[in-house]
Amino acid sequence: MNILSLVPEIQHFPKGWKVVPFDDAFEDATGGNAKIKQSDYQKEGCLHVIDQGKDLIAGYVDDFSMRCQVNLPVVLFGDHTKSLKFVTEPFALGADGVKVLAPCPELDARFGYYYLHLVRFPSDTGYSRHFKYLKAIKVPLPPLDEQRRIAAILDKADAIRRKRQESTGLLNKLICSVYRDTFGDISRYPQRNLSDVCEFITKGTTPSSSQLRETPDEGDIPFLKVLHIQNDGKIDFDNRPSFISAEIHNGPFKRSKVFPGDVLMNIVGPPLGKIGYVQDQFSEWNVNQAVAIFRAKKEIAPLYLFHTLRHKKILDRIIGLAAGIRQLNLSLEQCRLFEIPVPPRLIQDEFVAKIEKISKMERCSSELSANSDRFLNSCIHRAFRGEL
Q1: Which residues sit opposite 28 in a β-bridge?
Q2: How far is CA 259 from the centre of its chain?
Q3: What is the 3-class SS of 110-160, one letter each residue?
Q4: Cα–Cα distance measured from residue 134 to residue 114, given in angstroms and rounded to the nearest whole number
Q5: Taking the complete model, does pTM exceed 0.90, yes or no?
Q6: Can you tell me the distance from the alpha carbon of 47 to that of 61, in angstroms, rounded to the nearest whole number?
């Protein structure tokens, strides 16, 4: 099949706009640059590490000589994830899968960055590489002054979107403050093994490739991995989920069923320590063997368990138990024996009530953020039709 036929794009640009092949608009400047393994990412350092993940900054390194040797600004493209990032400051490249796209002299980098958001990739490519589709498109090159005018307008729409995202981040910080205010010094409470306060601790099961489906049939169950656990603990069902049949879910994989209220933790790294909370997007689903499942007993509020495992002191102790040379692992036995503070259920419930109020605010903020995303998307489409 002709790759060009798989890449829908705007068919009619404004009259007078020059249009060129992708390779005449962007240079693939990826080659020759150092790449940082995920296991070498640091929490602090002098240089950002940027990879193809959802977050702009994935980590840090201390060695400034590892920086990407390319003139800034540039656009980064996730070959697997299709993510787009606009980078204006020195950075180091993350693990394989990132393409560094340097604009040609006739292309304003910000204008090119916004245009690439219009590319629609085939829906059935899964985790395969996508750069070949990007290379098949054509790129408009109106006069530079016009490009900069359009980019400036889109920057204003993008600024609104980023402000909405920042407000959601502030609500997440508020949750941490509520935890501290409610429980104070958590070490003053009795310590209990997780096996004592959970009725169920196990890990998922990894299916064979023949058991996975990228497009679900009727009745299929979502099958998620570590990458679906976001940094804020939410589960991202839109990030390339796979599916298994209900027969497999209820048969050989029934031990690893996941339900609303379960707490998840990745036990194979790096990185370790991603904690997720299962809300009610689906009635039940399944996870792979890199994810541990914790189901609380009645004496423990599931949201309290989730936020306690995310507590920095607790999480640092958990990660400190990991063993392995090339790949860090936590065993289920280590998980079961790990101790957490257990305040009276009444205090836990007070905390949960406060968190649920914040969650309502967060849902409202998320809806506003989604609206700003739609507004930016609409502006981008109008810009390249010559309507701005």
Answers
A1: 101
A2: 21
A3: HHHHHHHCCCCCCCCCCCCCCHHHHCCCEEEECCHHHHHHHHHHHHHHHHH
A4: 14
A5: no
A6: 5
